[in-house]
Design goal:
199 residues, 6 helices
């Protein structure tokens, strides 16, 4: 005999109190970032060339010790250390974070004192700083970072990154801040000094 009667619904709708929605939003954003990061890792693993199996020799341990980066993949997760497809995959994941979390929350009004460029991904310094900020965000918003992790991220990473990214002489200094007249220009960098030339 069944415990439920025909008039009793099998499942009641779930109601979430408003004060818990912020926690859900934060948890969802964190989960989405983790899923993207796992996708990046899987793409990296899939893009690495498979090495041909070689018969074991007495010299194999020495060869592995001589080239640890080749066996373990990229030596760094920092975007500037990546190239080709790995860079493109990492930039796409970074763009998701910048466009869907960073800018909506921290993207204050654009002005000459706080410039921003919609084509930020074409500014190497901006890409490097935003990627470093994103890596720190992943670390300090993880539950293992503890309850003070987000505060530490704001104080030690976000505040410093914003000072440099949005500075009047920062990477977006040459980009027009007016939404009615958008302009984008990457500033030139100093040419490398030629070795052997005495000036």
């Amino acid at each position: 005999m069944s415990d439920t009667s025909p008039t009793t619904p099998a499942h009641e709708p779930v109601r979430v109190p408003d004060e818990d929605l912020d926690d859900l939003t934060s948890t969802l954003a964190k989960t989405m970032a983790e899923v993207r990061q796992h996708g990046v890792i899987l793409d990296r693993l899939g893009s690495e060339p498979e090495s041909a199996a070689s018969p074991p020799t007495d010299e194999a341990p020495e060869a592995e010790a001589a080239a640890p980066e080749q066996a373990d993949g990229p030596a760094s997760v920092f975007i500037l250390a990546l190239g080709g497809k790995a860079y493109a995959v990492e930039l796409a994941a970074l763009s998701d974070w910048v466009n869907h979390l960073f800018l909506p929350v921290y993207g204050r009004e654009i002005s000459t004192n706080r410039p921003w460029c919609a084509q930020w991904h074409e500014h190497p310094e901006a890409v490097a700083r935003l990627h470093a900020l994103w890596l720190a965000w992943q670390q300090f918003t993880d539950t293992e970072a503890g309850l003070s992790g987000p505060s530490t991220w704001h104080r030690d990473h976000l505040d410093q990154a914003l000072v440099h990214l949005r500075a009047p002489d920062g990477p977006f200094a040459a980009c027009t801040t007016s939404p009615t007249r958008p302009s984008h220009r990457v500033l030139t960098t100093p040419a490398p000094k030629q070795a052997g030339k005495v000036q």
